[in-house]
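Tokens in:
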């Protein structure tokens, strides 16, 4: 029975093989047989470490998430207009998850089956990302560029818009930078302090005073 005990090295070998497979093809095109062949193990061994292909896929995304997360947060340290910071951060998010549109849907389904450490790490990264966006928005509120708002809620809404674009595969068929600019433009139009009101007034005038 000792020979059937799990080992960290074997798990890493399987995970490395899965990363190679998922990097080359979409989720639905990759078979567990492909992963087991690349890892030089039986398919049953793969399932001992990762009970479903979905959990294996999530683990491959998590493997590269730390580096992405650090780069994402560093973008908010830049001395640049908020539009540029947010668009750059959202574009990086879209680029990282390009071809991984299933990730968030699968994560919702299987998050309760993640190892406790992975689940907590994911929640912490989400909190860090929301905090970075909220802090950037708060600075703009203080100087009057954005109207007073719940910046934490607004940060969640902006990241939610980005996740929606990822899940709809928009960033897979369009340039992430262009999609990101559109998302940020729509978002900021909703929270700007003065410009939004000016545009609404101009629109009423153009319509002859009709609301």
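Residues out:
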């Amino acid at each position: 029975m000792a020979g059937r005990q799990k080992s960290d090295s074997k798990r890493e070998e399987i995970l490395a093989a899965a990363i190679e497979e998922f990097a080359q093809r979409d989720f639905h095109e990759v078979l567990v047989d492909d992963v087991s062949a690349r890892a030089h193990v039986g398919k049953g061994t793969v399932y001992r470490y990762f009970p479903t292909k979905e959990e294996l896929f999530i683990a491959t995304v998590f493997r590269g998430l730390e580096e992405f997360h650090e780069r994402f947060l560093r973008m908010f340290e830049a001395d640049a207009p908020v539009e540029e910071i947010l668009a750059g951060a959202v574009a990086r998010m879209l680029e990282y998850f390009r071809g991984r549109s299933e990730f968030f849907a699968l994560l919702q389904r299987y998050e309760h089956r993640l190892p406790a450490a992975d689940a907590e790490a994911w929640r912490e990264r989400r909190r860090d990302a929301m905090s970075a966006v909220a802090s950037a928005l708060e600075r703009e509120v203080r100087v009057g560029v954005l109207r007073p708002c719940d910046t934490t809620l607004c940060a969640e809404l902006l990241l939610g818009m980005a996740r929606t674009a990822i899940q709809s595969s928009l960033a897979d068929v369009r340039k992430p930078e262009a999609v990101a600019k559109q998302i940020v433009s729509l978002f900021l139009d909703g929270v700007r302090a003065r410009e939004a009101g000016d545009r609404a007034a101009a629109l009423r005038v153009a319509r002859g005073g009709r609301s």
